[in-house]
Amino acid sequence: MHEDRWDEFRELHTQGLGRNAIAREMGINSSVISRTAAHLGLDFDRSKIAAATQARLADVAERRSLLAEDLIGDAEKLRAQVWQPQQYFDWGGKDHDFDTHDAAEPIPADKRALMGAAGLAIDRSLKLAPPEAASGVDQAKSMLGNLGELLTAYSRAADQQDAAQAEGDGA
User: Fold this and answer.
1) Rounded to the nearest 5 degrees, what angle is found at the Cα of 134, between the Cα atoms of 132 and 135?
2) What are the pLDDT digits (tens) for 138-164?
3) Cα separations in angstroms, 48 against 4, 16, 18
4) Which residue has the higher pLDDT, 11 or 47?
5) What radius of gyration, in Å, describes the C-alpha atoms of the chain?
6) Which pTM does this prediction carry?
7) What torsion do the CA atoms of 153, 156, 157, 158 make, to the nearest 10 degrees?
8) DSSP letters of 63-74?
9) For residues 75 and 122, is the Cβ–Cβ distance under 8 A?
């Protein structure tokens, strides 16, 4: 960068602009901005860059989530078409007639294509937003809770049986 642009560079740097923003503003390659900053003893606040990167990553994650949701909706619509009436058409014959006919549901080849497309949409949605892995903790708690209830019921039944037997022995 020529020395006559250093004041402009320092002003933009003082305003808090990052390296890429200064490069765009001045119409200069970002590597030239970096070398000039080092030469002038200036540095860039990386915390702003990190915060901006985190914000962009959060935005992208939200967009992926929305796209995955749309894909699930698409899959549901495609699957519903498997059982809906379908209109077929035919164009041709010696008179080049256009004919249509209605079917109660799509033919098997069309059903297979619809289910394949629905499966693809589901697969892509799971790649965009994978389900959270279940740790099994809730399932284990439920199993232990059920086991505890069964043991309590068994213990009460055994206590009642012992009490009934004691009454029969005492009579």
Assistant:
1) 130
2) 777 777 778 778 888 878 888 888 888
3) 28, 9, 8
4) 11
5) 35
6) 0.51
7) 120
8) HHHHHHHHHHHH
9) yes
